[in-house]
Amino acid sequence: MRQPASMPQDWWRLSKEINSQAMHTMLSFSALMVANAIDMVFIAHLGHEPLTAASLASPFMWLMNTIAMGIALAISVHVSKGQERGGGNTVIDVLLPGLLMGAAVYGVVLVGVGLNLEAVLGAMGAAPPVYEQSEGYLRTWLYGFIITLTFAISTAYLRGLSLFKTQAVVVAVVCLMNIVLDPLLMFGVGGFAGFGLVGSVYAAWLAQAGGALVCIYFGVRHTRVSGPGKLRVGQMLKAAGNISRLAWVTSSTATFWPISGIVATYLISKLGDAEVATMGVISKLQPLIMIPVWGVSAVTTVLLSKAFVQQRHDQVGMIFKSGYALVLMWQTVVALPFIVFAQPVARFMLGGYDDALPFVVTYLMIIPITVFGRGMLYLAVHGLPAIERARTAMAVDALYVLVLHTGCYWLGYLFNDFNLALLMLLALNLLGGVLAVWVSQRARRTQQWPLETI
């Protein structure tokens, strides 16, 4: 029987391992979030109406992106477990089921596009010219969602193979391409007038399609490849079953946040255009602020899945603790510049729309420094499926996000005070840290539980 680990030495070694790998993942997520933030800045310079239109569409885009991230997380966990079991995975065993699932999701998306998006967005309360622009922007983005999905799946495949550095470099280059293409396709150059708001979507399509091809190339180089005559249908169906079983959970929990965001945007839209614009800025800044969470969570999820396969149950609690400590450390480091430079950051993001300035400044002063609590809970919820605690993850996330997070904005709407909603979010962030500690304490007893069936 494995002896209990020497806590101080092993905790320090594990923390260094997670931090080393997370640095590469944080680089890739940093590039993605910086590109998203710069994209919003370019949109702001198109004018007040395009900024509000993009802000209305942001929660719906966030919803679809989190579905893609949920499928991607399931694939990275499946691949890492396959590597640990010794059999490994061929490219076709994993990518083909992932893409087939993606095609199914895309079919649902196309049905959604066929709905009257104008009526849905119009219910947000914006003026007709605004929600008409928002509809065109969102509809165009949804048509190309399969590209975003393929890019997410291919990068997750590299993370499952522990090719964190390779994945980081590819994503960074893709984001640089996106930043360069954005103004060219939005504003035009020379005799080309540009596409306006939808030019942002076209830039993302081109950059992500190239990135997906490069990721698949590196994945093929580092794994066995099944030829056309050796598709191994049984193995592929088994992989599809495992991935879909896990993806159902990871995608469901991932969608809780954007669903809450859509409801929150609807509620806050009743307060005024400045509040709606603030929600749009928050939708771009929040992922940027939480970069350490994405990076550390991606690495700890892979480590948890490996520890579970190897039955090293004594390390589960230690992995959670190491992840929490790194989230706390890195989130504090990231928060300080946003607090010190709150005014210039807010002005930069709003592109001269000063009506929303007080709200964005308040957000920057109180949320980044406390978001570590939410980040710790995010890490816990995404780590639980890797150790077969999927139902626990769904229950905790549903309570925290759908009930409590949405409730913060409901109180702001009820009292007609957006600043009240921000203060409630501050308290919710701190509560997230408490819940995360509770989850990790229960995770230490993983070896005593029967496996949950999904």
User: What percentage of residues falls in helices of 4 or more residues?
Assistant: over 70%
Mean pLDDT, as a whole number?
Answer: 80
Q: Structural class, judged by helices and strands?
A: mainly alpha
Query: What's the number of domains?
Result: 1
The major β-sheet equals: none
**How many strands?**
0
Q: What is the radius of gyration?
A: 22 Å
What is the beta-strand fraction?
under 5%
What is the molecular shape?
Answer: globular
Spatial gap, N to C terminus? 30 Å
Note the total helix count: 17
Could you list the spans in which at least 5 consecutive residues all have pLDDT below 50? 1-5, 446-454
- Series of H and E elements: HHHHHHHHHHHHHHHHH
Quick structural gist:
With 454 residues, the chain is mainly alpha-helical. Helices cover 80% and strands 0% of the residues.
Explain this structure.
This protein has 454 residues and is mostly helical. The protein has one domain. The chain is built from 17 helices and no strands. Helix 2 (48-84) runs antiparallel to helix 3, helix 2 (48-84) packs antiparallel against helix 9 and helix 3 (91-114) packs parallel to helix 9. Keywords: Membrane, Transmembrane, Transmembrane helix, Transport. The chain crosses the membrane at residues 21-47, 59-79, 91-117, 137-158, 170-195, 201-220, 246-268, 288-309, 321-340, 360-381, 393-412, 418-439. This is MATE family efflux transporter. One of its GO terms (molecular function) is xenobiotic transmembrane transporter activity.
